[in-house]
Each structure stands twice: as C-alpha cells, then as structure tokens.
Design goal:
Number of helices: 7
Shape: globular
CATH topology of the largest domain: Uridine Diphospho-n-acetylenolpyruvylglucosamine Reductase, domain 3
Order of helices and strands: EEHEEEEEHEHEEHEEHEHEEEHE
Helix content: 25-40%
Strand content: 25-35%
Mean pLDDT: 94
CATH class of the largest domain: Alpha Beta
Largest sheet: 5 strands, antiparallel
CATH architecture of the largest domain: 2-Layer Sandwich
C-alpha cells in the first residue's frame, strides 16, 4: 500500500488500455504522473516503501498490457522541458518525439528526421534506440540523465556508456536506471532540406503502415539479414485474425486492434507468428514491444 508522506496525487485502478496506443489492458493498482524529477524520486520512494513493483510509462506506444492489468504502481513520465543552445537540445524524457522532430526542423537542426512519424516520448525513443534501419536516435545522443531506482540518486551516462545498438540500450538491460532527460546534438541544415526529408519519410510510412486502427507499432525486431514483416508475410500470415486482433494486411509486422481486442488475442497471434516463422524459415523472432507484466 502507498503511504503518502509527501502529498502526491496517486490514482487507483486506472485503466492502462486508455493510456496506450494499442487500447488494450486492464487497470493498474496505483498510477502517478510525474512532471518533475523531484516528484519521480518521491513516487519511486513511496512505491518502494509500499513494497510495490513499479513500471515506468512513457506515451504507451510500444506496449501490450495484460487484460488483468498491473498489480503494482505505474509512474508516467511527463517532464516536458526543452532547452536549445547552438546545436544542442536538452529535452525532458516526457517530451513527445514528434514535437521534438518538428521543433528541431523549425530551428534548422538536422539529424532527427529518422524519427518522423514515430509515436512515443524522447525518453522511450532513447530507451529503445528508435529509428530506421540506417539511422537511430542514439547517433545524436551526447548525454543521458537518469535516476537510480535503488539509491534514488541522479546519474549521467555519455553516449558510449549508453551502449546503443539496434533497438537496444543499457537502459533496457539495467531497469534500475530511469531516464529523466537527454542532451542531443544535431547539425545545422537548411529548414527546407530537413522538411523535405521529413515529408518523404512520412509519405512512405503512411503508404506502408496501418494508421486507422490502434496498434503498438512493429511487434518484432528485424532478425539479422531479414525483415520481420517480410518473413511473416511469406509465412502466409498477413491478415490472419484471432478474436479482434489481426495481423495487418498492410504491414505484417503490425498487429492491429479491430475494436475490442484482448491481450490474449494478441499474445496468441504473437505465438502463432513465432511458431510459423521458425518452422518455415528457421528464424527466431524476438518481440520489440513490451509485454506487461513482463
């Protein structure tokens, strides 16, 4: 149970499906929206004193929540400050990635175009090293600031210490470190050039990815030398449906919610995809999305 020593507005039984792009999932026992680093530290302290598991939520864009919900405390990061100097941008982890991409273009800072039309927060993008096959946000990172869940002390990593790799970072490996802010470095470019690259990527994504149904984005990482979507398509699974969950007919690495999908429907499709792709191509697919509880 949460003991509220310092006044924080904890909500109870908040339905997580309403906070995710998949629109799937039951309630969390406790929910808190942290708008400052100080509130995050206090929320982590109170959850620990209540002996509760904690999940840190960004914008909920790459997560599948169980129909039963989460039996602990969900803390949503909403620290949304932005500072700009030269070609460096210091950004709160809760800033929307699409906003940052647009603002960087307006300021004539190039490099973030690879994140065009990627939902989520900047913190989530750094956590999962989001981007395209050729460019990722880790290439722009100078420093990442975080709070250690155990000590509740702040820390900072250089880009090298973040250990960025394809859809990977040290923060995925070490869940004790909660990203609070990021310093990114771009390069000066003409606004018109940046906008053109953004518009081109946005057009290509609009043509190839489902937009009119809730989803969590790409479900699987691309295996080395392969496209997960192509493998799923070649396995004959595009359009396959279980309950109200369907493998997208537009992009086979997306599972869409047709309206009333349950997490069990999505998990059944995930199991089917992994089984068939492994059976037919001897390739093991690994989930890119987070499944909660893990």
């Amino acid at each position: 149970m949460i003991k509220k020593k310092r006044k924080l507005h904890w909500s109870e039984n908040v339905v997580l499906g309403e906070l995710t792009t998949f629109k799937i999932g039951g309630p969390t026992r406790y929910y808190f929206r942290a708008e400052t680093e100080e509130d995050l530290i206090e929320a982590l302290r109170q959850a620990r004193e209540g002996d509760l598991p904690v999940f840190i939520l960004g914008s909920g864009s790459n997560i599948l929540v169980s129909d039963q919900g989460y039996p602990g405390a969900v803390i949503q990061l909403a620290n949304r400050f932005f500072r700009f100097s030269g070609q460096e941008m210091e950004v709160g982890a809760g800033v929307a990635l699409n906003w940052l991409v647009t603002e960087a273009a307006r300021l004539g800072v190039g490099g973030l175009e690879c994140e065009t039309a990627v939902p989520g927060t900047v913190g989530g993008a750094v956590y999962g090293n989001a981007g395209t096959p050729d460019h990722h946000i880790g290439q722009l990172v100078k420093e990442v600031y975080f709070i250690n869940r155990k000590s509740l002390e702040p820390g900072c990593y250089s880009a090298k210490q973040c250990q960025f790799d394809y859809r990977q970072s040290v923060f995925k490996e070490d869940q004790d470190k909660v990203i609070t802010s990021i310093v990114l470095t771009g390069q000066p470019e003409k606004r018109e050039v940046i906008w053109e690259r953004m518009h081109d990527l946005a057009r290509r994504k609009a043509a190839s990815q489902p937009r009119f149904y809730p989803s969590a984005g790409c479900v699987f990482k691309n295996p080395p030398g392969h496209s997960a979507g192509a493998l799923i398509d070649q396995a004959g699974l595009k359009g396959h449906r279980i309950g109200q969950a369907q493998i997208s007919e537009q992009h086979a690495n997306f599972i869409i919610n047709l309206g009333r999908a349950k997490s069990r429907d999505v998990l059944a499709l995930i199991d089917l995809i992994k089984e068939q792709v492994n059976k037919q191509f001897k390739v093991e697919l690994v989930e890119e999305i987070i499944i909660l509880p893990e």
